[in-house]
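User: Before I run my own analysis I want an independent prediction to cross-check against. Here's the chain; please return only the structure tokens and, at the end, one sentence I can use as a sanity check.
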Amino acid sequence: MQSTPKTSDSAFKQCGILTATLLGLFAVLYLPAQRLVGPQAVEGLTYATLLCLIPGLILFPVVGFLNREIAPVAIVGISTLLRLMTVGLGALIILKVKPDFGLSEFLIWLLICYFASLLVETLLLVRYSAEAV
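Assistant: Structure tokens:
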């Protein structure tokens, strides 16, 4: 099935919502990261935000251009798997390159961003699936 302009608009809108949400979360967490830990935590927060944004920016256009006969459960499952693999691999690479990053410098911010982006992505995918019906 060919994608319609509405489908691609929806995918770009979803990307925009996810991006705005994660940038808003970054803005909210910036001051606590800076005050509690320091500049290294802000760097970790930046990496965490980018790591959690990438899977959504890949997934929404792909889902938008695929045919709508895919089961919503499969879409959510694929998105969760893609997010887990991308963020997990990225976190391992960052921890290898920056061995001084620990819980307060990186991992706590990664967990917060991960679950926030997973929530927003799932809500957007469920809403997308409901619109497709």
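Sanity check: Residues 5-132 form one domain.
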